[in-house]
Amino acid sequence: MPIAEEISEATLARARSQGDAGEAWLRQLPLRYAELCARWQLTPGPAVVGGSASFVRRVTRRDGSAAVLRISLPDPSFAQRLATLRAADGHGYVRVLEADTDALLLESLGESLAVTTTDIDRVVRVASSLLTEAWLAPEATGLGIPEQDGAVVGLLALIETELGRITVPVPVDLVEHAKALLAERQRAWDPTKSVVVHGDPHADNILAAPPRPGAVGGYVLIDPDGFVADPAYDLGVLLRGWSDHLVAADDPAAEIDRWCAIAAEHTGVDPEAIQQWAFIERVTTGLHLLGLGLHDLGRSFLAPAAAVRP
């Protein structure tokens, strides 16, 4: 099968959205793939389903061990992602076996936590415990400690950008409350407690790992963003999901309270900060999706927001 037919639809769409750079990546991918297989002595295996920013394929190494080859789309943050994985050295994260400027050879992993369980409380427990293993001191990856929380700055900018391009009504009161909470999180910013966060630790980015040091509860994280922020930010990202569950719940606020308590118990992070970040992430993710024209998905994130407003 031609490589072009093995690229996920999401990756293909993202490549084409990058214009000339993305089209060049698509043209050069077969040659690049062959080059990496030859250099690292890999036998090609099946393509991996999913992913939105890289070509991913299972391979076999010269010694017969299984691995996964990822060739990234043009991405200015690739070097920082790699630095995060290397600094972690398998603690909380997938192990890097080989690396180049745009490609990673990674240990072979199993199914995601999203596939193996529907128990939300269990997902929160596993993810929270895993994050405490994965969080790094900023100096470990060569990052300095910023004067402001990078997540706060980025999300305030995102809100303004998305409000400028959204063509459907938005819940102004929820947006204003999210902005107020961002201001509160900035006031609470303590650089001495900052860490290199994963940035997107949802259950699809938590995969089963073989028994080894650094694999917490049999799982590790993949695909870190790797920037400096409040550790509560990662937990807020984790808890922004499960909208359908919250909408159907008799007491959505009690559900969020319980998840925040579980996350706090396993990390030592302030549950109020976690809850604030979860609300901020729910609203900003909804706005971003509305801005992309994904109106139904965007509204699904916003639907329970009023009921879980901290």
> What oligomeric assembly is this protein in?
single chain
CATH classification, class level of the largest domain: Alpha Beta
The percentage helix is 40-55%
**CATH topology name of the largest domain:** Aminoglycoside 3'-phosphotransferase, Chain: A, domain 2
Q: Average pLDDT, to the nearest integer? A: 93
Which structural class best describes the helix and strand composition?
alpha+beta
CATH superfamily (homologous) name of the largest domain: Aminoglycoside phosphotransferase (APH), C-terminal lobe
What is the straight-line distance between the termini? 51 Å
Overall domain count: 2
Contiguous runs where pLDDT drops below 50 for at least 5 residues: none
Radius of gyration: 20 Å
Q: What kind of sheet is the major sheet?
A: 5 strands, antiparallel
* CATH-level-2 architecture of the largest domain: Alpha-Beta Complex
List keywords for this structure.
310 residues, alpha+beta, Aminoglycoside 3'-phosphotransferase, Chain: A, domain 2, five-stranded antiparallel beta sheet, globular, Phosphotransferase, Kinase-like_dom_sf, NH2Glyco/OHUrea_AB-resist_kin, phosphotransferase activity, alcohol group as acceptor
